[in-house]
């Protein structure tokens, strides 16, 4: 399905997206596609139209099918969340700044079962780390801390990318980065096992 072939239909339905009787309004603009607005007042903040955001996403993801477009806020900024299926049938979520059309993020959509399995795997990893931490050598602990440092660095990079996308001011980003840097220092100073938000390769502990 190509969104640009349905420009007239999208245009005519965009005005009907806002439904005051419910907090979230859904409008079908294609056989298996939807546009939604999380809060009616957000429509006034969007400077990029549904058709424009569709064109932006299709240009970046050749041959994709757009399944749903949702207008909502993130960090106080109006954004579009677009669910797409690529030409090779993989599902992804694209986040676009509704004011300037900048793509903020593109990530694969994990099945709910996969998300639950990943969460369980991280919890098991943490339990293993907490159990083995007292037995780890100084070198092994440093190895784990380096892995956590990398996780902090990825968070910092993500915050900085929000400035370029127009979702945060430089001052807001600097404040958040300072908080992350503080947690980074406190993690090493505590002497305790770091808490991870992702799967990492922990050092092997000899029995």
Main sheet strand line-up: 1-2-3-4-5-6
Note poorly predicted spans: 1-33
Would you count the extended β strands for me?
6
Query: Overall pLDDT, averaged?
Result: 79
Question: What is the CA-based Rg, rounded?
Answer: 22 Å
Strand content: 15-25%
Quickly count the helices. Answer: 5
What summary fits the major beta sheet? 6 strands, mixed
As a percent range, the share of helical residues equals 40-55%
Form type:
globular
What distance lies between the first and last C-alpha atoms, to the nearest angstrom?
57 Å
In N-to-C order, the SSE pattern is HEEHEEEEHHH
Main structural class: alpha+beta
Oligomeric state as shown: single chain
Overall description:
- This protein is an alpha+beta fold.
- The chain is 43% helix and 21% strand.
- The protein has helices at residues 7-14, 50-60, 112-132, 138-164, 170-190; strands at residues 25-30, 33-37, 65-74, 77-85, 91-97, 103-108.
- Strands 1-2-3-4-5-6 form a six-stranded mixed sheet, with helices on one face.
- Mean pLDDT is 79; it is low at 1-33.
